[in-house]
Structures are given as C-alpha cells and as structure tokens.
C-alpha cells in the first residue's frame, strides 16, 4: 500500500513511510474518502519531503505517506482543485518551501503579509470596502478583515493574518529537554488541549507509560477547559446582541469553573498541571466533591440563562439564519471541531479515535445543527451539558485508581527515526501535533495544526450575504485563534 496505517498517539518508523507522487496522493485520498489533517514539508539536505496525513474518522485510523521534491522540481499540480479543503495547507507549504501548487485557485500568503497583499476586489459604482484591523479596539490579537460591500450587505470577506512571527515550531527543536511550558503557551485559551497533545507525543516517542489516574485527570481538565470557554463564548455572543444580562451571568458563571481549576493546579487556565509523565496535581475525594457541587451550580445557571435567551424574540431574531455555513460547505472547506459540528459535520477526536476514557462512557452526543449563529450558540450549550456529564463520570472512575501515582519519571531519550501524530479535541476543535525524530533521537520536525487553521475560511463564508453589523456576532460565534494560525 502507498500509505502507512497507524493510530492516534502511536509512533511509527519514519523510514517506513512510502514516497509517492502528488498525483498518487490525490487519487488515493479521493478513493479512501479520508480527510487531510496534516500536510507539511521537511528539509532533507537539498530535497524537500512533503508529508501527508489523512484521517478516517469512521474507523479511527490515520494514513501517512510522503512525496519528495528534488532541487530542480519547483512545482506540482495543485490538489486543491479537486480537494478544496487543502487550499490552506498548500498555501502554507508553498510559503515555507517555495514549491508552487500550479493552478491553485487562491494562492495567497498565509503568514507572510509584509509585501502588498493581493486582496480580492469587486468593481461597481455601489461597491465599497470596509477595512478592520489589524489593530482592534478590544484587547485581542492582530488580524485584518477586508469586507466587500454593497450598502450594508457583505458580498465577500477576506481575512489576512500572520502579524505574529513567533517561530513556535522551531522553539520545540531548539530545546533538547521536554518543554511543557512552551506547549501550554502556544495558544493561551487552550492550555490543556495543547499541553496534552504535546505530552502524549513525547510519551509515545519515549515509550513512557503514564498511570490511568493521570490520564483521567488530564481529561477532567480538558472538559473543564471546554466548559469554561464555551460559557464565556455564550456570554460574548449575548454581549454582541446587547443582551447584557446574559453576558453578565455567563461571565460570572465561567469564573466558577476557572477558579476551581485554580484550586486544582494553581492556575485558572491549568498552566503547570500537565507534564510529560503525567500530571503535577492530584484530585482527591474532597476536591472531587467540590468539582461536582460547582458543576451542579453551573448547570443550573447555564440552563436557566440559556432557556431565557432562547425564548427571547430579540435574541432569536439576531441568531437564526445569521452567519450560515451549511453542511456541504463546511465539509468541502475542511471545517473541524465545534464549527464543523454546528454545521452537521460529525467529527470529534474524543469519540472517533478510540480514546477508551471517552468511548467507555455512556454519553449522548450533541445534536446536528444547521450552521447559523443560533446553532453555534446552542451547540456550545449542549457541549457544556455533555462535558459536565463526562467530568462526573470520570471523577467516579478516578476512585478506582486512587492508589496510583499521578506522575512517573519519563524516559529522557526519544526513539530514533520515528514519527507520531498526537491529536486532542480541544474546545475549539482538533489540536494536532506531529513530531519526527532523526537518527540521533532528536526532534528534527515539529508540526502543529490549530483548528483555527481550518476554520478561518469558514468564518469568511459565514459572513457572506449578511450585514456588516452582523460580523461581530458571527466572529464571536466562531471565536477563532489568531495565535493558533500565526505559529
């Protein structure tokens, strides 16, 4: 076969990965009906190797292959023409290595925006442009939004990012020791999701087995992070509709969750909780009871406030049929996570890739939605309820492993010539870390994919045929990450 078959958090021999042509890659992806979760390059002397990782969500398998570009080969026929979801991956690969995807329909910079950016333009007497950013009135990161409008109606939105040049992936290569503090700082509102993906990758490469207790505590923290951010986002959506009561109540309620995380780990965002080898803090019976009581209070408040909002005509009129991304579009552009599920694309790393701590739980998956702001708001509510249920069940399981250590001393050496794909379903969607080691066991490539990398284009699609004044509401309903794109 042209692809190595593997699973989430399972290392493979990098030397076993086949080398095939890009046309074979295109053909195989279409035949296998998989979706691409990794598409990146690695310098090999004068050559560039393109790695492609495809996921089959139905069976929880990953497929990995590669294509080699010698110095004289500077282009290939773009795969985006038949697989639209690859548009952003091919643009990034071209930007980093200068190998052009010929006939790419939208070959523009992903992060290198120093030169004159070729914005899409519409012509006509009534057409005007609205430019927002990169510096914003709120305390948010830089990003530029260019609207093409006729009156108040938006025909097109182009999003230009790339203002933060942090070199995160290179930093992982420079530090020869485990670097959990860097991992949890890549994307500050997804501390647990990122640190968990990094730790699992390093544990797989170093053959470090962590305790069941540590695995459960990590997932409890992951779900608490999901609950807290979803509540905060519901408050932000309420605020953008001028429903200030909802914004205030959700804001206060979110604080209850993150303050409990503070009691567990010393940080409201879970910094310092996870290390390679396990976790640094235990959850005893007293803390477990405190978490359950807090979640019961949170559930009551979220239920009450959500139900009032969903019966308020002014709220419903702002959310329904606003910012629609239908199922066909979401699937075609490769949307992931909550953005995909709110459009009816049912993908979730927790349940699709054989995580026993999730698949063993009897939990109800949230509804399939219609892709508007209302769906994204309501899905957050459903996922909060789901995560509360998951945390309670995981806390009950924790009692079975109370005598286990929360942390083991990890092996310090990584397996040479190996590759591992580590995927975690953060609150925004799938966080994917790919680590490759060389012949000496040192990291030679570390690749990160944030869910926002897929979903920024979904926001651009959502705004079409809406009013300019609807953009803040659409934007909040996605709540995408600037730094997750600007690695």
Structure description:
The chain has 487 residues and is an alpha+beta fold. It has 2 domains: 4-102, Beta Polymerase, domain 2; 168-450, Cytochrome-c3 Hydrogenase, chain B (Orthogonal Bundle). 41% of the residues lie in helices and 18% in strands. The strands form 5 sheets. A 4-stranded antiparallel β-sheet has the order 1-5-4-3, with helices on one face. It has a 4-stranded antiparallel β-sheet with strand order 2-13-14-15. α2 (87-97) links the parallel β6 (75-77) and β7. The protein starts with a strand and ends in a 9-residue tail after the last helix. The mean pLDDT is 95.
Number of helices: 16
Mean pLDDT: 95
The biggest beta sheet, please?
4 strands, antiparallel
Low-confidence stretches: none
Query: What is the global morphology?
Result: globular
Estimated helix fraction? 40-55%
Briefly say what this structure is.
The chain has 487 residues and is of the alpha+beta class.
Give a quick set of tags describing it.
487 residues; Cytochrome-c3 Hydrogenase, chain B; four-stranded antiparallel β-sheet
How do the helices and strands line up, and which of them pair or pack?
Blueprint: E1 4-6, E2 12-13, H1 22-32, E3 35-44, E4 47-56, E5 61-69, E6 75-77, H2 87-97, E7 100-102, E8 127-132, E9 144-150, E10 153-160, H3 168-174, H4 180-183, H5 191-205, H6 212-240, H7 244-265, E11 274-275, E12 278-279, H8 285-309, H9 313-319, H10 327-333, H11 337-341, H12 349-352, H13 356-359, H14 373-398, E13 418-425, E14 430-437, E15 443-449, H15 451-463, H16 471-478
Parallel strand pairs: 6-7
Antiparallel strand pairs: 1-5, 2-13, 3-4, 4-5, 8-9, 9-10, 11-12, 13-14, 14-15
Helix pairs in contact: 5-6, 6-7, 6-14, 6-16, 7-8, 8-14, 15-16
């Amino acid at each position: 076969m042209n692809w190595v078959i593997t699973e989430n958090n399972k290392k493979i021999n990098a030397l076993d990965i086949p080398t095939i042509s890009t046309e074979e890659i295109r053909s195989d992806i279409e035949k296998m009906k998989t979706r691409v979760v990794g598409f990146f390059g690695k310098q090999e002397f004068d050559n560039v190797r393109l790695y492609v990782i495809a996921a089959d969500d139905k069976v929880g398998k990953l497929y990995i292959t590669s294509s080699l570009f010698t110095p004289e080969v500077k282009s290939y026929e773009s795969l985006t023409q038949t697989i639209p979801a690859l548009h952003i991956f091919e643009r990034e690969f071209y930007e980093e290595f200068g190998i052009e995807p010929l006939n790419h329909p939208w070959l523009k910079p992903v992060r290198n925006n120093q030169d004159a950016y070729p914005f899409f333009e519409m012509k006509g007497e009534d057409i005007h442009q609205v430019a927002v950013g990169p510096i914003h009135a709120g305390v948010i990161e830089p990003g530029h939004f260019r609207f093409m409008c006729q009156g108040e109606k938006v025909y097109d939105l182009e999003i230009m990012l790339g203002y933060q040049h942090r070199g995160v992936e290179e930093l992982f290569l420079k530090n020869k020791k485990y670097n959990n503090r860097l991992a949890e700082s890549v994307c500050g509102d997804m501390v647990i999701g990122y640190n968990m993906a990094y730790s699992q990758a390093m544990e797989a490469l170093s053959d470090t087995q962590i305790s069941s207790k540590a695995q459960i505590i990590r997932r409890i923290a992951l779900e608490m992070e999901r609950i807290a951010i979803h509540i905060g986002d519901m408050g932000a959506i309420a605020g953008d509709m001028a429903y200030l009561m909802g914004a205030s109540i959700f804001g206060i309620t979110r604080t209850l969750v993150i303050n409990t995380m503070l009691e567990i780990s010393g940080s409201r965002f879970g910094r310092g909780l996870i290390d390679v080898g396990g976790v640094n803090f235990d959850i005893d019976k007293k803390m477990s009871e405190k978490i359950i009581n807090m979640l019961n209070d949170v559930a009551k408040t979220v239920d009450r406030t959500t139900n009032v909002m969903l019966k308020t005509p002014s709220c419903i009129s702002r959310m329904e049929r606003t910012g629609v991304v239908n199922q066909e579009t979401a699937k075609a552009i490769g949307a992931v996570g909550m953005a995909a599920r709110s459009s009816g694309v049912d993908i979730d790393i927790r349940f699709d890739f054989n995580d026993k701590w999730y698949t063993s739980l009897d939990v109800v998956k949230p509804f399939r939605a219609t892709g508007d702001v209302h769906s994204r708001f309501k899905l957050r509510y459903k996922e909060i309820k789901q995560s509360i249920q998951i945390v309670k069940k995981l806390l009950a399981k924790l009692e079975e492993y109370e005598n286990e250590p929360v942390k083991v001393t990890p092996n310090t050496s990584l397996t040479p010539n190996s590759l591992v794909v580590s995927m975690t379903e953060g609150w925004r969607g799938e966080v994917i870390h790919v680590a490759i080691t060389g012949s000496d066991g040192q990291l030679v490539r570390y690749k990160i994919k944030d869910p926002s990398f897929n979903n920024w284009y979904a926001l651009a699609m959502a705004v079409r045929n809406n009013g300019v004044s609807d953009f803040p509401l659409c934007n909040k309903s996605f709540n995408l990450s600037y730094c997750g794109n600007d690695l």
